[in-house]
Amino acid sequence: MPASVGSGNPRSRRTREVRRHLLVYSGLIPFLVIAVFPIFWMAITALKQEPDLYRMDVVPFWFHLPPTWKNFDFLFHRTFYVDWIVNTMSISFWVSAITLLTAVPAGYALARLRLPFAENLGIGIFMTYLVPAIILFIPLARVVSTLGLQDMWWALVAVYPTFTIPFCTWLLMGFFKTVPFEIEEAAMIDGCGQLGALLRVVLPVSWPGLITSVIFSFTLSMQDFLYSLAFVSISEQKPVPLGVATELIRGDVYFWGSLMAGALLVGVPVAIVYNLFLDKFISGITGAAVK
Question: At what angle do helices 161-177 and 278-290 cross, to 10 degrees?
């Protein structure tokens, strides 16, 4: 009898595990469909011939005419799409670099140097991130004009840190508070100064927070539309969101295939890279939220 009971328990536990996994994955299927469907729709639209896009008598979720690369050819040879990609990557790189160079010392000072009202100051800095961009772009236009950057993608490098630095400063301030002060003291006993302790001890153990800041700055720089619309009007200087929306929509003519192709070529690689660093992004956000 004990043998039969012992042999039955693992089987019942395995059955419960299988049922539990089936229930979990069955519940995730609707969310998976919602997440994947836009990518599927973009891919289908990007590869469809134009007459196939406007047929109302067929199911729109598959091809009824042979797929074509014509939309991609139009995108790369009839627009400045390559320039838009280069501009977008350059803007995101410089904004991320400026944000890190500014937010790291600011967040560290607020977290470690025991400044008066440091906590309230950090909250105040974060609150500036919540100011709507539509309020700020008018005074920022004066700044851009004074710097002589109108109609250049460098104008966006100058204005995007106004919303990336406040959030990343608050994020890194919270993250630096989670680093034990004892390891900094040990570094100082070994001969490091405050700056040396920051560079050699604090930053190496804070890289999830740094990666979170880079991801945040990079993605926000890539997806902004309002500032780029306000400050850049020359076609070859535009980033991808502005170029695709303004150059592929001409009056009431929508180049749907090329629009979807442009969105697909930029969106999917960014989503893949984002998911590669997703664990670090979550740990960075939660590390800051603890404090």
Answer: 70
Residue with tokens 């590390």: 287
166: phi then psi, degrees, rounded to nearest 5? -60, -50
Q: Same domain, yes or no, for 60 and 154?
A: no
Three-state secondary structure of 27-71: HHHHHHHHHHHHHHHHHHHHHCCHHHHCCCCCCCCCCCCCCCCHH
Contact 81, 243 (CB under 8 A): yes
Instruction: Report the predicted TM-score, pTM, of the whole model to 2 decimal places.
Output: 0.79
Q: Whole-angstrom Cα distance, residue 202 to residue 26?
A: 43
Q: Indicate whether 165 and 53 sit together in one domain.
A: no
Q: Which of 99, 126, 55 is nearest to 213 (CA)?
A: 99
- If one counts the domains in the chain, the total is 2
Per-residue pLDDT tens over the stretch 40-73: 988 998 999 888 888 877 888 888 888 889 999 9
